[in-house]
Amino acid sequence: MSEKPEDNKPEEKNPLKGKFPKKPILPKNPFNFYWIYGIIAVALIALQMMNFNSPVKDINSSNFFESMLKRHHVTRVVVIPNQQIAEIYINRDSLKQPQYVKDGLDKHPAGPHYKMKILSVESFKADLNDAQKEFLPEQKIYPESDPRSSWTDQLWTILPIVLIVVVWIIIMRRMGGGGAGGGQIFNIGKSKATLFDKDSNVNINFNDVAGLEGAKMEIKEIVDFLKNPTKYTALGAKIPKGALLVGPPGTGKTLLAKAVAGEAKVPFFSLSGSDFVEMFVGVGASRVRDLFRQAKEKAPCIIFIDEIDAIGRARGRNPAQGANDERENTLNQLLTEMDGFGTNSGVIILAATNRADILDRALMRAGRFDRQIYVDMPDLNERKDIFKVHLKPLKIDATVDIDFLAKQTPGFSGADIANICNEAALIAARHDKKVIEKQDFLDAVDRIIGGLEKKNKIISVHEKNVIAYHEAGHAATSWLLEHASPLIKVTIIPRGRSLGAAWYLPEERQITTTEQLMDEMCATLGGRAAEEVIFGKISTGALSDLEKITKQAYAMITIYGLNSKIGNISYYDSTGANEYGFTKPYSEKTAQTIDEEVSKLIELAYVRAKDILTKNKHLLKQLAEKLLEKEVIFKEDLEIIFGKRPFDVEELPLTKAITAETKTGTEKTEIKTESKKEDKKEDKAKDKPATDLEPEKPLNTLF
Length: 703
What we know:
By secondary structure, this protein is an alpha/beta fold. It has 25 helices and 15 strands. The strands form three sheets. The chain has a six-stranded mixed β-sheet with strand order 6-8-9-10-7-11. α9 runs parallel beside α11, α17 crosses α22 and α18 runs antiparallel to α20. The chain starts with 33 loop residues before the first helix and ends with a strand.
C-alpha cells in the first residue's frame, strides 16, 4: 500500500497551545434519562388504545329500558357513582340474538357489554324501579354499586408527589454539582477542588511570570523545598505551612499560583473561596474537611484558595449576622485544619486576596500563613518584562519601542498591559495591517482607558468654547506650577463620557509632600477657575475635578496629618475594625473643624488658580483659540505660547521621545478618566493610603 503524500503546508503555531491542562476524557454513559420519558409516553398511549378497542358499547336510557330491560335480556347492572355511569350485563342466551351479534358482543360473554350515562344514582334507581313495576320478584334487577376509580384518577393522585420528589432531586443535584462523584445528592458536602497532578499538563512556569522578582523568590523557595527537602531539613528547617499572596487586582497573584502548579510537580488542589459557600448549614465545613482529607492522602501537595476573603472575613464584624453564621463555621473549620490539634505535614496552603485588611487575625498568624507576600504594581523595569512576555506572540514592526511603552504606563498592572497588547492587535487587524505599529498601541491605550472618540457628538458653539477654556485652564495651571505633573496633550474631542481631557505623565514617586499635593489640587481646579475668569460664571463640567480634590483634601487632613490645626493625627484604620461601625473616631467638634479646614484648603487652591490664570489671561485665550482650531494640542504647542517650563531643569529621555513623535503628528499618549482613577484609589485606600505609596496612571482631567 502506498502512503498518502504528506501535506507540505507548514503547521501554524498556536501561542496558547499547551498553556492549559488537558480536559480529562470522561467515560460515556450509555443510559440516557430521556428513555424513561419515552417509556412513560408509550405506556400512556397503549392504555388509551386499549380503551379505544374495548367491546363495551354506549347506549342511551330509552334503548336500555325498552329494548333490553323489558325484554328480560339484562342479567346485571353495576353503578359506578364517581364516574356517573351504569354498566349493563346481557345474559348469555340473549347474546345470540342478531342485535348483539351485530355489535360483536357474543365474543365477550363475560361483559360488561354496555355502559350508560346517568344523572345520579338515586334517579337511576327510581327509573329502574318504575320500569320493573310489573315484573315478578325473581325477574327484577337490583343495581350494584362499585366505588371504582380510573387509572387517570390514581395518576393525578400520585403525580404531585412524584413531581415534588423529582424537583427536589434536581435541586440537590444542581446544588451538589461539580463536587466529587458527579454532584449527586449525597456528595453535596464533598470538596469542589480541581486536582492538577502529573497527569495534568500545566505548562505555565515562572518564566511566564514577568516581574514580581521578590514574590517569585519566596514562592520558588517553597517549590524548591518540595523538590529538594533534604537541603533544608538537614539544617533543621521546616516547610512553611502557608503563604498568602496580597496585592491589587491584576498584578499576577493567580498567575503565580499557576506557575507553582506547573513547577512543583506535586498534586495541586485549586479552588475559590466561594466554592465553600452553600445555603445548607454545615456544607462549607464539610467541604473543608473533605479537601484536607484528600490533601493528606496525596501529601506532599499544595492547596490554592483564590479569593480567600469570601470565607476568611474577620468574625464578629457584621452586626446584621445571625447567631449561627455559616461562613464563620466554615472559617473555624479551616483554621482547625490549617493549624489545629492535629497535624497536616506535607500540605502547603497558598491563598490570594486583594482585601487582606478584612481577613481574620487568626487566619493571618504565623503557623497558618507563615508568609505574606505582597504583589505590588509593577515598576518601570517590571513593566518592560511584562511587555516582552505579552509581545512575544504578536507581530510588531520596528517602531514599537518597549522602553517607551513601559515609561508611558506608570501605575498599570500586568492585566492592564495584557489588555493593551490585545487591543492593539485588534486595532491593527481592524485596519487590515500586516503588523502592529506603535500608533496602534497608543490608540489601544486611548480606547481602553478613555473610551471611543465621539467626533459626531452634537455640541453647541457656546459649550465648545466653555470646554476649550476649561481644558486650557487645566493645561495652563499645570504648566505654570512647579510640582504639577508634566502635560502631554490636551483635547476637546469627546471620548467616552467625557467632553474633553488634559493628559499628564505623573512621575513615579514613593512619597508626596504638601507642596506637591497643593499644586496638583490647584491644577485640578484650573478648569473651573478658567471658566470664572473668562465667562464670569461656572458650570457643572467640573464634577469629576471637585470629587477628586474633595477626597484628596480629606485624605491630607484625616489620613496623612498634613494640617497644622488638626495636627499630626491620622484617623485611618488599616485593620478595618470600624468598617461596619456608625461612629467616627473623633468628636463632632473635630468633625466640624475638619470640614472647615477642607473648605479652606480647597478655596486656597481655587483662589491661587484664579490668580495664576488672571495674570496670564492673554496666554490662556491664545491657548483656548488654538485648541478650538486644532481640537488636539501637544506639549510643543504650549511651549510656543508659554515658553519653556522654568521648572524643567533637564529634559528627560522620555520627554524627548514624546517631542519627536508629536512633531510627526503620530504621537498619542494614555488617558484615564477621573471616575476610574478615583474608584481605584478608593479600593486601594482600604489596604493602604495610595496617594503617597503608589504611582498613578497617566492623569487626565475631564470636563
